[in-house]
Specification:
Blueprint (H helix, E strand, L loop, with lengths): L7 H9 L6 E6 L2 E6 L2 E7 L2 E5 L5 H6 L4 E6 L2 E9 L8 H27 L25 H8 L1
Antiparallel strand pairs: 1-2, 2-3, 3-4, 4-6, 5-6
């Protein structure tokens, strides 16, 4: 089921990136998250649109004077991997779509990195392992000589 935003700005953002596929906006932390195929590639906070960046795309956003998303946490500025969209791209789906593709690609790479980290868990050494609570299996009894003689006859 596609979540339909009530906020006009969230609806506009979904239309802006419709070329990526079915875009949905879901409420989160007083704003919205923008999703395609269940993957968040953007956020809307205080009437500002931010797109996902990573090490491969950050410089592209910075060259266009895009601003990182920051918030205050206990008196310190915390920056997330989301940057504003260039101002001219906010006015046109044709100009916004390439930026949306960059953001979606960064989100895909981020998901792949999380999956590969989760699948490669270090094995515990013998000393770290908990002892098993199952009783050890008993070795089968060897037949006595008397039983072995009866079987031969």
């Amino acid at each position: 089921m596609v979540a339909r935003p009530i906020d006009p700005f969230a609806e506009y953002a979904c239309e802006l990136f419709a070329g990526l596929g079915p875009v949905s906006a879901r409420r989160m932390f007083g704003g919205y998250g923008l999703y395609v195929d269940g993957l968040m590639f953007g956020i809307l906070v205080s009437e500002t649109l931010y797109l996902k960046v990573d090490t491969e795309t950050r410089a592209t956003f910075e060259r266009e004077d895009c601003v990182p998303f920051e918030y205050d946490k206990q008196g310190k500025a915390v920056s997330l991997s989301y940057y504003t969209l260039p101002a001219d791209a906010m006015e046109s789906p044709a100009l916004a779509l390439p930026w949306g593709r960059l953001a979606f690609a960064a989100a895909l790479r981020g998901r792949s990195a999380k999956v590969s980290k989760a699948s490669v868990k270090p094995s515990k050494s013998v000393a770290q392992r908990k002892p098993t609570k199952q009783p050890l299996a008993k070795a089968p009894k060897s037949p006595s000589r008397a039983t072995a003689r009866r079987v031969k006859k």
